[in-house]
Design a protein that fits this description.
411 residues; mainly beta; Immunoglobulin-like; seven-stranded antiparallel sheet; 6 helices; 29% strand
Length: 411
């Protein structure tokens, strides 16, 4: 059994360490029961249960989530910060339109904002390099550290490329790029094709249209139509072939259910997406649990979700599968958010109950809302890791499945 000292050494923050100790204590429970509570003592966490709105205009406190333009509970609408305007429920800068996370609007253009937090000597994400006062190497979690403090190995971290703790883990082949220790397809957009070669899309050069073969050609040479190609969604040669409803994605010109894995106990399911100026700007996904056998239901949940494009998690809410068993999302007091952004750009969300040991019901465990600014498609996926579920019997069932398959979201 993992000791408390080992857990402390592995903890990336007091938040994760506190949860790990709690998970260790509950993993010893052998029976379901108890009276679950959605709040913790000692001020370490707080339950996220809604309270009735104060109807007194003088004392009413507006309650606004990620969406603008909706009722704030006090008779007004949720608005945007100064300089932003509300479009399709999303606050954007009118002079630039939608900008990607970690970009800002300046001089009418979305410009990259360098990110060097815990990334000494690494790329700043904008084509530059972060400064460093002394030699640093990269750990398995993506953060920089002095060489003498780095003990990760390529095999242990599962890296197939890049440098880890100053040691080369290998190189990628032609047409690939190393991303977080894995070789991935390198997208290519040069205006001659509307496909990036990796499942994504590209804009055609000005004055050209995208034909059924994903080639950008002159309008007079673009003869394909929705009818001739059988497309029910998307577009071809400038003709719109239709749009898919909420919960669906346009795959190869057909609307299909947008879910990561039909047969898995843990699923990502598209609830809705919003599009502004031909870019996906907001995506709401459901994290669903489906019992797939005895002892497959967890008492505690530690999910980590990432995407293949820059996204920002802006809202997380517990669903009935959690609240029905007295569980809540862990609230980080340092940020007042019910998630934590990791150094690999994924997001960690923890669900637990302090005193109860009931297992989670089948159904929606939580909803996650992401902001982005991509033409799409965008792939969301769970990051596979041990103890996604607790106790161990539930995690064993989960780990034997393909729960880390991707959810593809299109316009």
């Amino acid at each position: 059994m993992t000791t408390r000292i080992q857990l402390q050494e592995r903890a990336e923050s007091h938040w994760v360490y506190a949860f790990a100790l709690f998970l260790l204590a509950l993993s010893a429970c052998k029976v379901d029961g108890g009276n679950p509570s959605s709040s913790a003592s000692g001020g370490q966490t707080q339950a996220q249960t809604a309270k009735p709105d104060d109807t007194n205009p003088a004392t009413c406190k507006p309650k606004c989530g990620a969406d603008c333009g909706v009722d704030d509970g006090c008779g007004a609408k949720c608005g945007c910060a100064e300089g932003l305007e509300c479009k399709a429920g999303v606050c954007i800068d009118a002079s630039c339109g939608p900008c990607r996370p970690k970009e800002r609007c300046a001089d009418g253009k979305c410009q990259c904002v360098p990110d060097c937090a815990k990334r000494d000597c690494q790329s700043d994400g904008c084509g530059g390099k972060c400064p460093c006062e002394k030699p640093m190497v990269v750990k398995g979690d993506g953060e920089s550290t002095p060489p003498e403090d780095c003990h990760d190995t390529c095999k242990g971290a599962g890296w197939a490329c890049g440098d880890l703790c100053g040691v080369s883990c290998g190189a990628c082949g032609e047409g690939e790029v190393c991303h977080k220790g894995n070789c991935e397809c390198a997208p290519k957009c040069d205006g001659t094709s509307c496909s990036d070669g990796c499942g994504g899309s590209c804009d055609c050069a000005s004055g050209t249209l995208c034909n059924a073969g994903d080639q950008c050609v002159a309008p007079e040479l673009c003869k394909d139509t929705c009818a001739s190609t059988g497309l029910k969604c998307g577009s071809v040669c400038g003709e719109a072939c239709g749009t898919c409803g909420d919960g669906q994605a346009c795959m190869e010109g057909q609307c299909r259910e947008a879910v990561s894995c039909v047969d898995c106990g843990l699923q990502l399911r598209l609830i809705e997406r919003r599009v502004i100026s031909d870019r996906i700007v907001r995506v709401k996904v459901g994290v669903d649990f489906k019992s797939v056998g005895d002892n497959s239901a967890p008492r505690l949940v530690d999910v980590r979700v990432g995407a293949d494009h820059a996204v920002s998690l802006v809202e997380a809410e517990a669903g009935p599968a959690l609240t029905g068993t007295g569980k809540a999302l862990f609230l980080d007091e340092a940020t007042n958010q019910s998630w934590q952004e990791k150094s690999d750009d994924s997001f960690q969300v923890l669900a637990y109950s302090v005193s109860g040991t009931l297992r989670v019901n089948s159904g929606r465990m939580m909803t996650l809302t992401f902001d982005l600014a991509e033409p799409g498609p965008v792939r969301f996926a769970f990051l596979r890791h041990a103890q996604t579920f607790a106790p161990l019997d539930a995690d064993g069932v989960l780990q034997s499945s393909d729960y880390d398959k991707g959810l593809v979201v299109t316009r």
